Each structure stands twice: as structure tokens, then as C-alpha cells.
User: Fold these one by one.
Assistant:
Number 1:
Amino acid sequence: MTMEERSRERRERMVVHRATSFDDAAAWDLEFWQSQSPEERLSALVAIRRDVELVEAARKAAGLLRE
């Protein structure tokens, strides 16, 4: 699956909230993640880590990231 396909799929599943304050944002975030199953939370973490690795590899290839 390409990054574009993953991005499109992720946008279709996206759940959003417009917070009115930092406290509101923190409360919504906590409620959202607590409503997810352990498998869903782990899957999200793995997907984020994979995306970070892709970005770091691209930045390194472009000479923008030092090890």
C-alpha cells in the first residue's frame, strides 16, 4: 500500500473535534483514546512510527537529517 493510499484510507476513518480550550482538547483526546481497543491503539502507534520512519528516510536522503 502506498503512502497516498494509506493517507486516503486514514482520512476516511478520521474522527475530529474542534476544541474550545486546551482542557477541552485534553479531555476529548483522553476520551477518544480510552474508547479505542488495545489493538486499535497499538495499530495507531505502529502506523505513526512507520510514517515517522518514512519521513526520516526521505529527509536523510535529501540531506536534511543527521544521524
Note: Residues 1-35 form one domain.
Number 2:
Amino acid sequence: MLTGTGVVLALPPALTATRAVSAWRWDPVVVVAVLVAAAAYGWGMWRVRRRHPARPWPAARAVAFGAGLAAVVVALCSSVGVYQDTLFWVHMVQHLLLIMVAPALLVVGRPLMLLLHASRNPVHRTVKRILRSRPVTVLTCPLVGVPIYAAAVVGTHLTGFMNEVITNPWAQTGEHALYLIAGWLYLAPGFGREPIRWRLSPPAKILLVILAMPIDTFTGVVLLMTRHEPWSAYLAQHRGWGPSPLTDVHWGGAVMWIGADAVMMVLIVAALFSWLAAPARGRGLRWVEQARAAALEQRIGVAGRGHTDVDEDDQRLAAYNDWLARTAREPRRR
């Protein structure tokens, strides 16, 4: 197979169950990027634990972020990355990992919120200003994220772009980055709790998924019903094993249709669960606030009973902050 840079790449051997597990190709750029991201996240967790020993960064978020990085490694370095240029259905598995699975897990990990918690001024102030800036606000708007997601899915699969991806390594790298970015921009406003301006309600989250589902379904059905191999670069490989080129495209369309819709259904279930859990969570927060107010009355003696004017609320907040500051200083004095 001749690439766009004039380098001839040998076709990999036939894909078997054994090779699906054992075939790995470690890309130095991917490995370094993943290790740097993992180290930065771990450093942020250490900073938060050091500054707030009583409130360490939740381990579940770290597990989700690590799983997201693992999904990236599997998509690019495992047999999925080895056979992406040879079998279209394998490319489609990679596509789903990069545009849906990995971004969803990374969003749950909340790396931007961790950065804010771990940083101090002036870095903290600068990061917060950037995240609340107009360009970031526009890019993370759901009405912008859905079209970007649609352009990434349709533009790379229903055009001749795949020919460029197979023959040009730079185009392939750009495609991988596009999938990750498009997936994050689509999922972050609805399913992340990052410090951006957009925070969708559960019904809006469900609507966001419903808007995007036809994109994957349409693309998958078109590929599943095509009667010819749409990309000459796959035909030029003269692969002598596996499915025929047309069957390969049909399998890829099925992966897109069934796989993407399955992930979308998981997102809908997650949104429904958060919707149903919201009332109970609200009752729990009210109980915590009542307990906090009672503790203030006992410890500080400032919060009055049965009053709700704004000045008194400010006084309660100031007294509470003073109490927290004194509590934080007590261990140091010992």
C-alpha cells in the first residue's frame, strides 16, 4: 500500500481472534500524550488532597478519566489501530471509541474542574477567565456542538475523505484529533459538570441525544445499503483475506448504526437516572443546609432563628467562612 508520502506499507496478516488481542503498534506520540495527561491528572489529585485533606478528589472520577485514556490507547495502538487502514469495519470501531466512548469517560473525569481546584492564582484566575470567555462559550454551546459532531461523522464517511486518511498519515492524525474534539464538544455541555457556562437539565440532555441519534443512524444506513465500494484506497490494497470490500463497508455501516445508537441509549438512560435522582438529591442538600445552619448556631452563635433577610444571610456566610478558616488553622498550631 502506497501512502501519500511515498512510503510503501505492508498489509498486516489476516485478522484472527489471536491477532485481535496480540497485535499492538505503540505510537510514541500517543503514548507520550496519554502519559502526560495521566501524570497531569494525578498531580492535580495530589494538589487537591494536599490542600483539602477532608475533601479529596473522588476516586470514581479518576477511574473514569483513566478509562477514557485507556480507550484512546486501545483505539490507536491495539489491533484496532493496526487494522484501521485495512478493514473499514475496524476503522468504524475506532471511530466510535474516539468520538463517543473516550470523550464520554473523559467528560465524567472532569479534568477542567480538577485544574481549577488544583491551581492557584494567577493560573486559577486565568483558566477561569478562558473557560468563561466568549470563544469557549460559543464552542461549547450545544447548538454548536451538534453540528460539529454531524460534520465529523458525515464529512469523514460519506465523502472521499477516507481515501486521504488511508494514504496520508497527517490526515489520519487530524481525523483522530477531530473525533476526540467533536465528541468532547458534543458531550461536555450535557453530560459533564465542567466549569463552562452551559449546564443542561435532564430533559435538555435527552433532547441533545435525540438530536444527534439520526446523524449516526443515517450514516450507518447509507453505508449499509451502498452497492459499491466508495473508496478506491481500500480496493487498491488487493487484500486476499477477510470480507470482500463491499461486505466490509456494509459491516462498517452496521457498526456505526448499531454501535452508535447503543451508546446513545446509554446516554439517555444516564440522563433519565439523573432526572429521577434530582428530587432525592435536592432533599439531601436541604438536609445538609439545615444541619450546617444548626451547627453554626451552636458553634458561632451568629445565625438567628426564624429570620431570612439578606443581611443576615450574608452574616451567616461570613461567620461560616471564618469558622472554616479557624478550623483549617487549628492543626497547624498543634
Note: The first helix runs from residue 17 to 22.
Number 3:
Amino acid sequence: MSVYLVVLLAALLHASWNAIVKGGPDKLLSTVLLTSCAGLLATVLLPWLPQPAVESWPFLAASVLLHVVYFALVARAYHLADMSQTYPIMRGTAPLLVALASLCWLDDPLGLGALAGIVLICLGILAMALARQPGKRSANQRQGLLLALLNAVVIAAYTLVDGVGVRHAGAAAAYTLWLFLLTGVLLLAWALLARRVVFVAYARIYWRMGALSALGTVASYCLVLWAMTQAPVAVVAALRETAILFGMLIAGLFLKEHLSPARILGACVIVAGAVVLRLA
């Protein structure tokens, strides 16, 4: 299979697990199921891999906390607003924020291509923000939009932290599996302490959903990691942004969300901007 088809598959898997969470009756408990199952899978795989260096653990700890916030915000955003609105904003805005952070704190200059990508992403977000969903409360849409933007900040933060952490780890796969495991432990502990009876009942009914979404999460990362050993990292990262388009299609076809022209246009512009920014 072509490496680029593998990246497209990874993008599809990423969009799919988001759709599974969105389609769950309780979005937060669905994320807890996902992370718990991903943690269980990581537990099985970790003994067979070289372990991360000690120097990477402070970054790993910070990333775990950021991922807990990330999953909580994903659940809340999907509770309030459509996936076709929030998913493109979360995924597309993060590269913009990473680029701006690199400019401000790492002194990485931005070329014309990067600036063009930033402008396109901003225009796409504006189109998403102005889009109105028939039959939906505008207050919920606004809150969902704000949460999606806030989560983009979290995604950018853990991207930067993991970028440093993986370099210190010397073992990218194990670093990420520990991330899955520890995030799952924290969210599972919260669920058992705060909503034990409800969560246990929910898990008995929807454990297959949790297992499927966890498999998609772990497989998506592993496929991208492999692809980056076979093709230029910038190209792989850019192609992965097609997850936004997959997310839109899944939201329309399976979640039955109304895809207005403004949302479709906004998502396409965000994808274009993210791709330009990744390749700049």
C-alpha cells in the first residue's frame, strides 16, 4: 500500500473516533471509555518496546495533563455543537497556533507560504463562525465554537510539549503509548470516583464503541508514525489534515448533520490553509 494511502487511512481513523464520541449518548463517558481502552491496549504493547529516557518524563507528565483537558473539551464541544463545525476548527487552528508560538518563542521566521496558510485558516474559521445551523440554539453554537478554539490552544500546547518530549525520549512509540496509558488512568479514576454507577452501566452497554474508538486512535497514530519514516514529515503532516474533510463527510452521512455551504467552504479553506502552512 502506498505511504500516502496509509496517511489517508490514518486521517479517516482519526475522524472516525471523533464521530464515535460525538454519536455517543454521553460524550464525556464515551471519551473515558475510549481512553481507558486505549490505555489497556498500551499496557499490552509497552513491555515489547524500548522505553523512553528519564529526561522525557516531565514532558510526558505535562502532556498527560493537557490531554485530559483536551478530551474533556472535545466531549463538551460535541455536546453543545455539531462535529462538522467544531472538528475542523480544533484540527485546523492548532497548526496556526504552533506556527505563531514558534515565531514568538522559538524565533522561527514565517515565510510567505506560512503567512498565506495563516490567512486561509483565519478566513475558514470566520466562515465557520458565521455559519448558522437551522433548528439549533445559536448560544450553543457560539459556546461550541469557543470551546473548539480553546481546544485548539490545548492541541497546540501538547504538540509543542510532545515535540520536545519525544526528542528527549528517544522512543517515540513508547512515549506515546505511555501517554495513552496515563491519560486513560486519570480519566478512568475520575469516572469511578465521580460517576461510578453510571459509568459502569454505560461501559457494559457501550464497551464495543470504546474499544473501536480506542483502536482507531492508537492505529491512527501508529500509521502516521510509520509514514513519517517513509516520506517527508511535512508532506505526511499536510496530508493528515484531510481528516478535516473526512470529519465533515462522516458528520453529514452518518451523524446526519446539516452541511451548509458556509461550513463546507470554511472546512475546505481551513484544510487548504493547514496544508499550505505544513508545507511552508
Note: Residues 124 and 269 are 5 Å apart (CA to CA).
